[in-house]
Design goal:
Blueprint: E1 4-6, E2 16-22, H1 30-41, E3 45-50, E4 64-68, E5 71-75, E6 80-84, E7 93-99, H2 105-119, E8 123-132, E9 142-146, H3 149-155, H4 168-179, E10 183-191, H5 200-214, H6 221-239, H7 242-257, H8 272-292
Parallel strand pairs: 2-7, 2-8, 8-10
Antiparallel strand pairs: 1-3, 3-6, 4-5, 6-7, 9-10
Helix pairs in contact: 1-5, 2-4, 5-6, 5-8
Length: 293
Amino acid sequence: MDVLSFSMLPTLRRPILLLAFAGWNDAGSAATFAARFLTQRLAAQKFASIDPELFYNFVEQRPQLRWNRGEREIIWPSNEFAYARHPELAQDVIIGLGVEPHLRWRAYTEAILHVVQQCKVELVVTLGALLADVAYSRPVRLTGSASDPALARRLRLSVSRYEGPTGIVGVLHDTCRRRGLPAISIWANVPHYIAASPNVKAALALVRRVLTLLDFTTDLSELERAAQDFDQRVAAALAADPKIAEYVRRLEERDAEEEEPQEEAIDALPSGEELARELERFLREQRRERNED
């Protein structure tokens, strides 16, 4: 069974593959919300998909029924790839939006890497969001890591030393490392005491960082207003719960006492212009080394 199908194979300029997966790596649905926003804003066109049949327990991840033009339609868990070509993009972009699988993770990862191979992807970027002990009122803390030590040094990212349970993002990055494919991961820290989903504020922070990485600008006013509204609704909810409000106040005091701002942690991403510039240098060196070989 061929799990990966192409409706077409686009010709792309040194594409970057941006990936987000619903599930364990997606606290507050921030990563997938950001990926959907970017897909829409970049007018990305779908060209490939992964068949869900082999990868999901449909008792755990049930298909959905909906009405479509007077008929009932079953919507299966989707894993789709869309490409964006824009005159203001220095490199074309592929956005992969999926659901963390239950089964056959290695086969699932190989399907993604087949997209990488067929489209000659130069860099894989994964988005994630994790539950953290952070104050909602503070700027969203973004952290990043890289699979390649040289790329990590160039972008001042960490080479993750995490040990413990991992998600499909961790498996994918390990595979990229073993294949010599540059990959970076960008994570938003989401307050663990906020159940609202999507966390628009965290999604906005991810979108801004991706746009910086792509050296691309677009109107974010609608998303910024939604993030402000999200903060206001959270503040109103906390005002009705004195225990949580006190807990958040202690988090804010802790952050204020830290010698460095929270968003400037060791593994925080470098400034926007520097990130784009250093990434371009790294990829240029990679291309030169391949040509010399």
